[in-house]
């Protein structure tokens, strides 16, 4: 992953490690979705329950400190 100004990108590089010389690269732009927007989208899609976490141990999400943003929803 890398940033360029205010945009984030994920880079994928595929290399042939069997002795070949083939290499392929691809870059995909990250979407800048925020927790409230994701929660609204889940509710509009019919989710009855939506939880927002800042990590896989279900830590509370804090926009300034959390490394991860996880949304768990149930219809």
Write the layout of secondary structure elements.
Layout: E1 2-4, E2 7-15, E3 23-29, H1 35-44, E4 49-53, E5 70-74
How does this structure look, described?
By secondary structure, the protein is mainly beta. It folds into 2 domains: 1-31, no CATH class; 33-75, no CATH class. Helix content is 13%, strand content 39%. It is built from 1 helix and 5 strands. Strands 1-2-3 form a 3-stranded antiparallel sheet, with no helix packed on it. Strand 2 and strand 3 (23-29) form a beta hairpin. The protein is elongated, with a radius of gyration of 17 Å.
Q: Quick summary of this structure?
A:
This protein is mainly beta and 75 residues long.
Q: How large, in whole angstroms, is the Cα Rg?
A: 17 Å
Q: What spatial order of strands do you see in the largest sheet?
A: 1-2-3
Task: Please trace the helix and strand order, writing H or E for each element.
Answer: EEEHEE
Multimeric state? single chain
Strand residue content: 35-45%
Features:
75 residues; two-stranded antiparallel sheet
